[in-house]
Amino acid sequence: MTVKDITKILEDFAPLSYAEDFDNVGLLVGNASAEVSGVLVTLDTLENVVDEAIAKKCNLIISFHPIIFGGLKKITGKNYVERVVIKAIKNDIAIYSNHTALDNARHGVNAKICEVLGLLNTQILIPQKNTIKKLTTYIPNDNLEEVKNALFAAGAGDIGNYSDCSFTVEGSGTYKANADANPTKGSIGTTHTENEIMLTCVFGKNEQSAVVNALLSSHPYEEVAYDIQTIENTNQYIGMGMVGELDKELSETAFLNHLKLKMNAKLVRHSNFLNKPIKKVAVLGGSGSFAIGAAKAAGVDVFVTADLKYHQFYEAENQIVLADIGHFETEQFTKNLLVDYLTKKIPNFAIHLSESITNPINYF
Where does a divalent metal cation bind (predicted)? Predict the structure, then answer.
């Protein structure tokens, strides 16, 4: 398998189009056409991780965090980022990152946290906007089923737990072919009227290229009339953070002990206790201060995240408990998630879970 083959499998799980605009995701180092000898999955790509990849004969590193975030004007080895890039290139090792694409994925980082904590009835905390597209096109009656089936096979028409969703309206289409045309129906220079069906269906923005190709290849007309709109509906299955429920209520101290145990956290920084039981929980892996308002609006009892600053704890406003367990701690199971997924998809391939320690924070 090539690097591109394996990253395509990852992008079926976490499409890069769902990454945040500020992020740097995808293949960061290496040749997409290179044949892969083995894959090493890690949270961060540091020099010790590249050394581990060399030792395990892995020439592809799947790293949740991107080693290259901003632009590199020089690569001289003066800092850890440049040294990692140099060492990877010298040893023909590719580096790929999916970061916020995996954060936003339905079964990604936050779903894994929910699984570890045993949360039920989960849903997205902050659904992502501008991710749903709507296709409208016009098809001769006799060709409707063929075109519809091609569109559905390309990913159009999926809404939540339903597939093959569409809406049709009958009408008449007109056109007049010029001398350079090769009309499927009608004659050059004559206005033709055809009984047609107006078809509309939705699709995810990551599927636009496949959907358009399916339309053009299955439609009988030489020139296909269609338009695509981005609709305002939020995608309830894609977005940042998740909300879920414990199977039974816990006291605040019992929940924090549960949190420390399940998430292997050394400590929990938290806002004031409210002296009420914990049942509904919001989680967001990594730096989640931007979601405090959303967590309060969701009516949760506690919001588990990382990297909260001093004054941000005040934002709890005695409405919820904020629990900061650390950046690494919230995301540590991400590499297990990726290994499990890849192992299921390519079971006879060498997929390794990195054993290198990459957490930069120590506790005394």
Answer: 65, 103, 327, 331
